[in-house]
Specification:
With 353 residues, the chain is an alpha+beta fold. It folds into four domains: 44 residues; 79 residues; 95 residues; 119 residues, no CATH class. Helix content is 32%, strand content 35%. The strands form three sheets. Strands 15-14-8-9-12-13-16 form a seven-stranded mixed sheet, with no helix packed on it. The two termini are 69 Å apart.
Length: 353
């Protein structure tokens, strides 16, 4: 309210004083100049305002598209490490004009680099320890075999040879067990170290690269899009068998949740994709529900139901490989691999094993 009142004072006309004395206009004008200067600085400092965002997942990657409101004529956009080189596109919106686009690598965090060096040294020490333990393991294995293979000979200094052999064998085996425990601890430490290194590398290179975009004017709208490779969506099916037909519902398992974004999937790889393919929206409902003819089904004898079913893909679309949950007359039979099927192909699935 105080800011609104100050602004209204700047916008309202002021009259001259009826009597002598300094006019308040000069003081108000000075305040207004300071206020407008502050607002101008804030406007210049504002970053790009994020607009609508959509992510279309493919079987081996994704296409990300986002609208941005730009102020100040320049923006910087962080791109993920998985972005495909050369895939960035920037499209002007609302009469904006793009003057320049530059993609630069992001410098790794010095603190992360320092920690990675320390972890690498620790990893070398653990590997040396593991190698030394392997040598000890061979020594105590050989000692245990030697003790166990000795012929008992009673002498004046060794009146109970069997006891001595047993004690020597037990000693070697006990030391061998200590070596095994130490090796397991070291291997666990190495695995934990590798996870820590992977997390730090992802943190240090999380942005991957930076896109710098200059506009000809101070304000405007742009739409960016790019491709990522590596992670993709995984198909999941519900196959409900009953009688001569089976109902198949397809779902999408995503690598991660995209908050505030519209999410779609396309059942092909990036190299096979085209703009003519209609993406399927991901939500609470299945991607699609179809009915397939059941060519055969066979139950195996046993306490629990094991069912092998052969269906034909008459959906008219490709069903990519994934996993399928099987239901026989409403009863859940388990999850089985789904090998995928082209239109018209037969598909054999066994549930319950």
């Amino acid at each position: 309210m105080q800011h609104l009142f100050s602004m209204s004072n700047c916008l309202m006309p002021h009259s001259r004083p009826l009597h002598g004395g300094a006019s308040p206009v000069s003081g108000v004008a000075a305040s207004c100049r300071v206020l407008f200067l502050a607002l101008a600085l804030v406007a210049v400092a504002l970053p790009a305002m994020a607009g609508s965002r959509s992510v279309t997942w493919y079987l081996d990657g994704s296409r990300v598209e986002q609208d941005l409101q730009v102020t100040g004529g320049y923006i910087e956009i962080s791109l993920p490490a998985a972005v495909q080189a050369g895939s960035l596109r920037v499209r002007p919106r609302g009469g904006a004009r793009i003057s320049r686009v530059q993609v630069v690598p992001v410098k790794p965090d010095p603190a992360v680099e320092k920690e990675l060096i320390r972890l690498a040294e620790q990893q070398e020490s653990l590997q040396d320890r593991l190698q030394a333990l392997s040598v000890k393991e061979e020594i105590f294995k050989s000692a245990a075999k030697t003790q166990g293979g000795k012929a008992p000979r009673r002498t004046r200094t060794n009146p109970e040879p069997l006891t001595a052999i047993r004690e020597g064998t037990d000693f070697a085996i006990n030391r061998l067990e200590e070596v095994y425990r130490a090796k397991r601890r070291t291997e666990r430490e190495l695995k934990g170290l590798e996870k820590r290194q992977a997390a730090l590398r992802q943190k240090g290179n999380g942005s991957g690269s930076m896109a710098r975009i200059w506009l000809a004017g101070r304000q405007g709208q742009v739409q960016i899009s790019y491709l990522t490779s590596g992670e993709g969506w995984q198909p999941r099916y519900d196959l409900r068998i009953g009688g001569a037909e089976a109902e198949i519902a397809s779902w999408a398992d995503l690598p991660r949740q995209e908050k505030g974004a519209r999410v779609f999937v396309v059942p092909v790889r990036l190299a096979e994709a085209s703009t003519a393919m209609a993406p399927l929206a991901v939500g609470r409902a299945p991607l699609s529900i179809s009915r397939l003819p059941v060519l055969s089904h066979q139950q195996e004898p046993g306490l629990q139901t094991v069912l092998t079913v052969v269906v034909r893909n008459e959906t008219g679309t490709f069903l990519p490989a994934g996993t399928a949950s099987g239901f026989w007359n409403g009863e859940f039979l388990g999850v089985a691999p789904f090998s995928g099927a082209k239109p018209g192909d037969n598909l054999k699935v066994t549930f319950g094993r």
